[in-house]
Every structure is written in C-alpha cells, then in structure tokens.
Amino acid sequence: MPMRDYIYSDTQHPLTIQPSGNVGVVYNEEAIKQSLTNILATVAGERVRSPIGSSLLRYLFRPMAKNSENDIRDVIIRDIMKHEPRLSGLEVYVRANFDKNLYDVVIIAQIAQIRRPIEVRTRLRSMTTT
C-alpha cells in the first residue's frame, strides 16, 4: 500500500515475513481491529512497561449469567476508551450464549481521523460451566 493511502499501521500478528524479506504490516482498519483484539486478549498488567490490557478475565472465571452482559460491556468500553484513542462513537454489544458457554461481542466504532466505520466481532469463552 503506498504511503499516502494509510494513516495507521502496525506489524501483522502473528508475525509474518513477506517474500521481500520485510515484516508483514497491516494498515488503517486492520491495524485498529488488531489493536482492539490485543486490548481484549491481554490481561491488565501482563505486559511489562505497557499499560495495555483488559480486566475481562475476572468475568470469564465467574459462572455465566445474563446480568454479566452489562458488566462485560462496560469493561470493554472502558478499556477501549483508555487504550484506543483513535476511535469515536463506540458501541459495544454483548450477548450470553449459554449453549456454547461464551459471550458474543460486537464492537462498532468510527475511526476518527479517517472517518471510516469499523466492526469487530469476537467471542469470549467462559472458563466455568454451570
């Protein structure tokens, strides 16, 4: 991608090496999506000298409950707002899926500087069974 076509970039995860010998890179929407995934997948305090992370883990070791949806949504919103300033108009939807023992999560936002929408869908697996 030519330099003028993107504002945000990050190394590709998992780390890949291109045929040219360069490290793989993701741009704009993909870079932001990757950032959101990293925030939610990292436990707060896990990375030395990096404040990135979430406190979601404590909810995933509790028995699943319908009333946990709002708590999980609030934590996701707080953590994204804290660690991802490139987003605006953040909306987060959480739905408990008791049959599969997980929470379905949808994150919708606007990438502020480039005015593009972004949507990330993920699942948070509960670590307990009822």
Which key terms come to mind for this protein?
26% helix, alpha+beta, 3 helices, two-stranded antiparallel sheet, Nuclear Transport Factor 2, Chain: A, single chain, three-stranded antiparallel beta sheet
Protein model, in words:
The chain has 130 residues and is α+β, with helices and mostly antiparallel strands. Strand 4 and strand 5 (116-125) form a beta hairpin. It has a three-stranded antiparallel beta sheet with strand order 3-4-5, covered by helices on one side. Strands 1-2 form a two-stranded antiparallel sheet. The chain has one domain: Roll (Nuclear Transport Factor 2, Chain: A), CATH 3.10.450. The longest helix has 16 residues, at 68-83. It is built from three helices and five strands, in the order E-E-H-H-H-E-E-E.
Which percent range describes the beta-strand content? Answer: 25-35%
How far is the first residue's CA from the last residue's CA? 48 Å
Name of the CATH first level: Alpha Beta
Give the number of helices. Answer: 3
What is the overall pLDDT average?
Answer: 89
Shape: globular
State the CATH topology: Nuclear Transport Factor 2, Chain: A
CATH architecture: Roll
Q: Rg to the nearest angstrom?
A: 16 Å
The stretches of 5 or more residues where confidence is low (pLDDT under 50) are: none
